[in-house]
């Protein structure tokens, strides 16, 4: 039997039985009850500046068709009497997009590219999508940038990279991974053999996360493009990346802009460029390289045969 809870959701909104409210309007959920059909939360409704109760049905709940019809009829009656002060008002229904997409990814066998940039997926949505990627076997390109999900979801995605063997492009720009999330992804990169392009810009990776990624650069043999911009690596981080470039033989593009690498980082990278023979594009914009760092790079470029 089909998942009638989802069918009901689509039918009720399309036929105008109830209003549809965007899920991201509900914030600060507090669990106040658990039942056979799901959970009940107390939430703040930003769209209406009020406190409401949100009943969340289980995605896999199999609801009898008669019960579904009765429930819709009940909602119709509620709409007629909801203005009475002694009747609890029913405002509408919603759906958590992240989980719905994750469910679709588990069942879809044709999608190869998915862009979810800046969609406020939420913690549960982000984790659900990560879990779905462990089962999906067709997606090769995924953009989850600017969803501000954090360490928990970063660990879930790292687990994906350890298991998934189809994903080639992954964008995690401004994902709020932090140094611990960076370490998790670095460990996954040491095991992954399909990813060719990874964007980790603006993730607050810091020196510790960067050192772990530098180690991954030494060991990974498939990555050709890596964006580590805006992560505040500092001079020590720049040195670690430079050491990794001396050993890496696959990267062709590396973005290190806005990392405050300083003169020591610049000198280390200049030395690394003398050893590396595959990198063709390097972005060092706004890194405070200074005179010494600039000189070192200039000397390197002066030695390149024309």
UniProtKB/TrEMBL annotation:
It comes from the Eukaryota. Its main location: cytoplasm. Keywords: ATP-binding, Cytoplasm, Cytoskeleton, Leucine-rich repeat, Nucleotide-binding, Repeat. Pfam families: LRR_6, PK_Tyr_Ser-Thr. It is found in: Cytoplasm, Cytoskeleton. ATP binds at residue 55. One of its GO terms (cellular component) is cytoskeleton. GO terms for molecular function: ATP binding; protein kinase activity. PROSITE patterns: PROTEIN_KINASE_ATP (PS00107), PROTEIN_KINASE_DOM (PS50011). Residues 26-306 form the Protein kinase domain. This is Protein kinase domain-containing protein.
């Amino acid at each position: 039997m089909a998942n009638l809870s989802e069918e009901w959701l689509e039918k009720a909104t399309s036929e105008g039985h109830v209003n549809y409210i965007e899920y991201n309007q509900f914030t600060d959920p507090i669990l106040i009850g658990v039942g056979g059909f799901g959970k009940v939360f107390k939430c703040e409704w930003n769209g209406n500046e009020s406190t409401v109760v949100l009943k969340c049905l289980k995605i896999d709940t199999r609801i009898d068709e008669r019960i579904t019809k009765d429930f819709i009829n009940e909602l119709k009656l509620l709409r007629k009497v909801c203005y009475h002060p002694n009747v609890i008002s029913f405002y509408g229904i919603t759906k958590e997009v992240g989980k719905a997409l994750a469910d679709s990814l588990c069942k879809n066998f044709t999608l190869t590219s998915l862009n979810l940039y800046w969609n406020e997926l939420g913690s549960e949505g982000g984790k659900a999508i990560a879990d779905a990627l462990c089962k999906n076997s067709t997606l090769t390109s995924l953009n989850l940038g600017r969803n501000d999900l954090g360490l928990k979801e970063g660990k879930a995605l790292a687990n994906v990279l350890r298991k998934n063997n189809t994903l080639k492009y992954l964008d995690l720009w401004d994902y709020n991974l932090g140094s611990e999330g960076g370490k998790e992804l670095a460990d996954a990169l040491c095991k992954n053999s399909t990813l060719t392009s990874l964007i980790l810009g603006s993730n607050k990776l810091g020196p510790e996360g960067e050192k772990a990624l530098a180690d991954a650069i030494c060991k990974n043999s498939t990555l050709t493009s890596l964006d580590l911009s805006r992560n505040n690596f500092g001079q020590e981080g720049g040195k670690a990346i430079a050491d990794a470039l001396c050993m890496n033989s696959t990267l062709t593009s590396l973005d290190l802009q806005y990392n405050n690498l300083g003169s020591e980082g610049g000198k280390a990278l200049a030395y690394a460029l003398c050893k590396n023979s595959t990198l063709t594009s390097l972005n060092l914009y706004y890194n405070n390289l200074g005179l010494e760092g600039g000189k070192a790079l200039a000397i390197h470029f002066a030695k390149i045969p024309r």
